[in-house]
Amino acid sequence: MTDVLAVTESKRGAVAGVSREVMTVARTLADSLGGSADVAVPGAQGGELGAWGADNVLQFDAGGNAPGGQDPFAAALADHIRAGGYAAVVFAASATGRDLAPRVAARLGVSLVTDCTDVEVVDGGIVVTRPVFAGKALARVRALSTPALLSIRPNVFAAREAPRAATVAEIGAGAAGNQPGYRVVGFEASQGAALDVSEATIVVSGGRGMKGPENWHLLADLRDAIGEMAALGASRAVVDAGWRPHAEQVGQTGKTVTPKLYFAIAISGAIQHLAGMRTSGVIVAVNRDADAPIFGVADYGIVGDAFEVVPKLAEAIRELRQG
């Protein structure tokens, strides 16, 4: 068995950005194994994935988006995987993937390796790297099940184009006898910023050192000075205190981000926070404690009071953009 299946997801009626990362990982594994890379798409989206390395696009009946929830899609997916003889199946470790992948693994009776940050083929087998102990260590794990089911951490793998003339096939819904005992009644968009922190090119994050939600306008001003490509983030302590919504939380129990530029303002740098942002391109830290752990991962560090530094930083950025 040398073929690999990528399982994608949709967002607001289009293929989600993380699906390109999933497709890239599947393409890399298929090339290493000498097989083809298929992609399972819920609904009719996915024609574009041929540009990202898909040999075959499998359009499943949109059971995963129907009132029945993920179970119909999981059932159809498991049936196809069982018949397809795949060496590996790749999911995203997103909210959707964390719901879908275990359902598929349970139906197939195989193990699932989650939250992978590196995937490779070693001696014909799938070997992954994943964080353990709250990100304090990395474990290398060999998948012993066939197929190897794994989910990749979003925003860690760089999506790469690998154009193919992909064929398109339609797959029916899962068996009617496998309906769940719940019903999804609808979806509501969050009332937060239009740009999700996990999708932003630049992230401005604040920690408990901001002293309260009334001071968050300083970070918002810095974000506005940077422009529409920036989003606000927050540490867990801030979210737990109710200062900011959970949608902005960066870290092990929040979102993993990989922006080109990450501002860590008044954030000490606990290991749980570092697990969600240490793969950022450039990290700028502002903290009045010169011994704060955040400076251990920062590319640029400013030892100073955030209430003095951030306004000057915003002003300098505005002048630079206007000039």
Describe this structure in words.
It is a single chain. The protein is of the alpha/beta class and about 325 residues long. The chain is built from 7 helices and 17 strands. Strand 2 and strand 3 form a beta hairpin. Helix 2 packs across helix 3 and helix 4 packs parallel to helix 7.
List the helices and strands and how they pair.
Elements: E1 4-7, E2 10-11, E3 14-15, H1 17-33, E4 37-42, E5 56-60, H2 71-84, E6 88-92, H3 95-108, E7 112-116, E8 118-122, E9 125-132, E10 137-142, E11 148-152, E12 167-171, E13 202-206, H4 217-226, E14 230-234, H5 236-240, E15 261-265, H6 271-277, E16 282-287, E17 300-303, H7 306-322
Parallel strand pairs: 1-4, 1-6, 4-5, 5-12, 6-11, 7-11, 13-14, 13-15, 15-16, 16-17
Antiparallel strand pairs: 2-3, 8-9, 9-10
Helix pairs in contact: 2-3, 4-7
Helix content: 25-40%
CATH class (first level) name of the largest domain: Alpha Beta
- Content-based structural category: alpha/beta
> How do the strands line up in the largest sheet?
7-11-6-1-4-5-12
Query: What is the N-to-C order of secondary-structure elements (H for helix, E for strand)?
Result: EEEHEEHEHEEEEEEEHEHEHEEH
The overall pLDDT average reads 87
| Annotated CATH topology of the largest domain | Rossmann fold
The number of distinct helices, counting runs of at least 4 residues, comes to 7
Are there runs of 5+ residues with pLDDT below 50, and where?
A: none
CATH homology-level superfamily of the largest domain: HUPs
What CATH architecture of the largest domain would you give? 3-Layer(aba) Sandwich
Q: What is the makeup of the main sheet?
A: 7 strands, parallel
Query: What share of the residues does DSSP label as strand, in percent?
Result: 25-35%
